[in-house]
Automatic annotation (TrEMBL):
Belongs to the Rieske iron-sulfur protein family. Its main location: membrane. Gene3D superfamilies: Rieske [2Fe-2S] iron-sulphur domain. It comes from Streptomyces jeddahensis. It is a multi-pass membrane protein. Residues 245-335 form the Rieske domain. It comes from the Bacteria. This is Cytochrome bc1 complex Rieske iron-sulfur subunit.
Length: 352
């Protein structure tokens, strides 16, 4: 039988040096509660100079956290994302990741270490024993809890030790800025960049295979040719971003076979220029059927009728392919007469 199975009133008891009742072991209760050891005062409890030293240590830790948080923000803003440094024994790593990890770690550690040192050296460490009671608290217990809370708040000396209080509030106030600064990666807002491409009046149509400007005679009836804007090169830093909006496909159809009036007006001698980007999820369109003048997106089989304004005739695409209005310049080369009149690519861009 354990001591938990023996009614408390039946346990043999004695008194410790402070007069508190403790259970003693006997044959029936070999594991009696030995009671709490005598409380020993810390040096901070009896020496105010030691308490001041602990207070300054805690304040120093909280101040270190504040400086580390400022360092985190400064690193995030100033260190280039592609800069590398050598750190022994790790090797070459990202300078930005290293700086962010170190400063954020120091900021967290300093707050935790400051709180632990404060609790261990300045807050009361005297153990208090409460007997078990029913789950529902009585008014007396509630009053005691409130009194204990007030006593704990008083013993924490938060109001008296203003240096600790102020530096702690500073550390806790600055640290969330680390997360707020990270929100910068959600911006800047795209504005109207998704609604415009590199095409503009006078921009030559460049063959993506030969990288040469094209004449109408270069495009045969029933053929499909891909083009990009003049001046856009593959080694450009923003090539992938711009070609994803400006990629063009050219098809030549007999003018009598073009069904839509505007489609015919925006063409040149039956040469139609459409966005190569599918309006479903942005896949490049590359499959052309000469007899029907249909193009098929290989990703989800959206099908568009180029002879009828690029309208969707099958599949999940949300709207027709945008058409680019084209003509020829004085030298006989194909050129854009304007940008697309609507955003290219997936339909959700229109709702942006």
């Amino acid at each position: 039988m354990s001591s938990q199975d023996i009614p408390e009133k039946n346990l043999p008891t004695a008194q410790d040096e402070h007069g508190a009742a403790v259970a003693v072991a006997d044959e029936e209760n070999p594991f009696a509660d030995p009671g709490l050891p005598p409380h020993e005062h810390r040096i901070q409890d009896i020496d105010e100079r030691a308490a001041k030293r602990s207070e300054r240590t805690v304040a120093l830790l909280f101040t270190t956290s504040m400086l580390a948080t400022i360092g985190f923000i400064a690193s995030y803003v100033t260190i280039p994302i592609d800069q590398n440094i050598f750190v022994w024994p790790i090797g070459h790593i990202s300078a930005l990741n290293f700086a962010l990890g170190m400063t954020l770690g120091v900021a967290l550690f300093a707050i935790g270490a400051g709180a632990v040192h404060w609790a261990r050296t300045l807050m009361s460490d005297e153990e208090i024993v409460d007997e078990r009671h029913a789950i529902e608290a009585t008014p007396e217990v509630k009053a005691k809890v409130i009194a204990d809370f007030k006593q704990g708040a008083k013993e924490s000396a938060l109001g008296r030790r203003k240096l600790i209080r102020n530096t702690m509030f500073g550390a806790l106030a600055l640290f969330p800025l680390s997360g707020i600064v990270l929100l910068r990666d959600l911006g800047p807002l795209p504005g109207t960049k998704l609604r415009h491409t590199l095409w503009k009046p006078g921009k030559l149509l460049i063959n993506q295979n030969t990288h040469e400007p094209m004449r109408p005679s270069d495009i045969a009836v029933g053929s499909l040719t891909f083009a990009q804007p003049e001046g856009l090169e593959e080694h450009d830093h923003d090539f992938q971003k711009e070609i994803a909006k400006a990629a063009l496909m050219l098809v030549r159809i007999q003018p009598d076979n073009i069904k839509d009036k505007q489609t015919l007006e925006w063409s040149h001698e039956g040469i139609l220029a459409y966005s190569k980007i599918c309006t479903h999820v942005g896949c490049p369109i590359s499959l052309y059927e000469q007899q029907t003048h249909h193009v098929l997106c290989p990703c989800h089989q959206s099908t568009f009728d180029l002879a009828d304004g690029g309208k969707v005739i099958f599949g999940p695409a949300g709207h027709a392919l945008p058409q680019l209005r084209i003509g020829v310049n004085d030298e006989g080369y194909l050129e854009a007469l304007d940008d697309f009149e609507e955003p290219v690519g997936p339909a959700f861009w229109e709702r942006g």
